[in-house]
Amino acid sequence: METLVLPAPAKLNLFLHITGRRADGYHELQSVFQFLDLHDVLSFTRISSIDIEFQCSDAQLDTPDNLVVRAAQLLQSYQRVAQGVRIILDKRLPYGGGLGGGSSDAATTLLALNQLWELNLTTDQLAELGLQLGADVPVFVRGHAAFAEGVGERLYPVQPTSPWYLVIDPRVHISTAELFQHSELKRDCVPLARETWQQQTTQNVFEPLVRQLYPEVAKALDWLVEYAPTRLTGTGACLFGAFESQELARAALARMPAQWNGFVARGLNESPVCQQLRQASTDNLTNQD
Ligand SMILES: C[C@](O)(CO)[C@H](O)COP(=O)(O)OP(=O)(O)OC[C@H]1O[C@@H](n2ccc(N)nc2=O)[C@H](O)[C@@H]1O
Ligand SMILES: Nc1ncnc2c1ncn2[C@@H]1O[C@H](COP(=O)(O)OP(=O)(O)OP(=O)(O)O)[C@@H](O)[C@H]1O
């Protein structure tokens, strides 16, 4: 029985600016995405029926509307695929906190099924399909750290430094939709040139609002900034500090107040899922020789 086992990494928004608003109410963003070496794990097994069977280690996400199931259904109907799959999601990433885990699971599903079902769709086609599932899906499909524009669909590969991060999940739920609608949200950032942006002169425009509305997140930001340059990722509530070494990040984690959840992870400019798929196809070619 053929089974593919693949990771789905988390992402950070190294900064997040809003440069305008589209007619449909969606916001034009500028951001830089970088991956983390922390990931969910998905396994994909071909089955004899055309069903999409799904199982998740987290009972709350073990539902038919999981992004993984929606990604598989989308691909199945787009290509009129007469094959099925059993997918098992080992959920390790905190969700709903700006780490993009759901989008990453969806992207890994598109990439995996393209291979398992032998569909031969291009990366551009998969990224376009992924955008229907969420704004953050295309960057995970493409697999390079990227400067993003539009709602996150115009992506340009970049090579930011890869520090060690201490990521804190303050265990607070934040509504992305509510923040995007807030009257005090800064929506007039001057567009940055992607060739010359510098982390120091950027911000996450949601941070002042999140500080005001969610005091626990403000507390975590104030705590972490004593150790390292600190930012919110996405619309929060997760935040990250950039450290020069794993040891320094771990030392800060050891002092972190117990009410928060924290982890240390390395920034990655290549997604491990794309690396693994490339490796698998090279192995296949070698085996055919
Ligand atoms: C903030 C980011 O995480 C940055 O990476 C993403 O842009 C958010 O993307 P996402 O989680 O897929 O967000 P969605 O679930 O699509 O959006 C939730 C809601 O936020 C608002 N929204 C979202 C993205 C965007 N560029 N403009 C918006 O105005 C919309 O009202 C939308 O209904
Ligand atoms: N496979 C999945 N993993 C996580 N969440 C999922 C998944 N499928 C559906 N969801 C739903 O999507 C919501 C957002 O999850 P996700 O982890 O993608 O958001 P996030 O970390 O806030 O990322 P973003 O930066 O895209 O806002 C969850 O609260 C959950 O209800």
UniProtKB/TrEMBL annotation:
Enzyme class, broadest EC rank: transferase
EC id: 2.7.1.148
Pfam families hit by this protein: GHMP_kinases_C, GHMP_kinases_N
Binding residues for ATP: 94-104
UniProt KW keywords: ATP-binding, Isoprene biosynthesis, Kinase, Nucleotide-binding, Transferase
Record-linked InterPro entries: GHMP_kinase_C_dom (IPR013750), GHMP_kinase_C_sf (IPR036554), GHMP_kinase_N_dom (IPR006204), IspE (IPR004424), Ribosomal_Su5_D2-typ_SF (IPR020568), Ribsml_uS5_D2-typ_fold_subgr (IPR014721)
GO biological process terms, semicolon-separated: isopentenyl diphosphate biosynthetic process, methylerythritol 4-phosphate pathway; terpenoid biosynthetic process
Active site annotation, chain numbering: 11, 136
Domain GHMP kinase N-terminal, residue spans: 66-143
Associated pathway: Isoprenoid biosynthesis; isopentenyl diphosphate biosynthesis via DXP pathway; isopentenyl diphosphate from 1-deoxy-D-xylulose 5-phosphate: step 3/6
Organism domain of life: Bacteria
Catalytic activity: 4-CDP-2-C-methyl-D-erythritol + ATP = 4-CDP-2-C-methyl-D-erythritol 2-phosphate + ADP + H(+)
Gene Ontology terms for molecular function: 4-(cytidine 5'-diphospho)-2-C-methyl-D-erythritol kinase activity; ATP binding
Domain GHMP kinase C-terminal: 197-261
Family under the similarity heading: Belongs to the GHMP kinase family. IspE subfamily.
Stated role: Catalyzes the phosphorylation of the position 2 hydroxy group of 4-diphosphocytidyl-2C-methyl-D-erythritol.
NCBIfam families the record matches: ispE (TIGR00154)
Protein's name in the database: 4-diphosphocytidyl-2-C-methyl-D-erythritol kinase
Organism field: Pseudidiomarina aquimaris
